[in-house]
Design goal:
Blueprint lengths: L1 E6 L6 E6 L8 E5 L6 E8 L5 E6 L4
């Protein structure tokens, strides 16, 4: 399992999840923020210099 970190766009809390996300690059994954419990859409993508970009978004209430 890989650890992926993302910041909740709703409350700005830093979340860490363990998942197989890196094996499923460019696919949307839905996680729940540990603080505000808001659903967050997370997409992992290739970044510069072999790094990982994690794109997090959510619908505003």
């Amino acid at each position: 399992m890989d650890k992926v970190e993302f910041r909740c766009p709703h409350c700005f809390h830093d979340n860490t999840v363990e998942c197989e996300t890196i094996k499923e690059m460019y696919h949307e994954h839905i996680f729940t923020c540990a603080r505000c419990k808001h659903p967050v859409d997370v997409i992992c993508a290739d970044g510069p210099n072999d790094s990982l970009n994690v794109i997090a978004s959510c619908d505003e209430d």
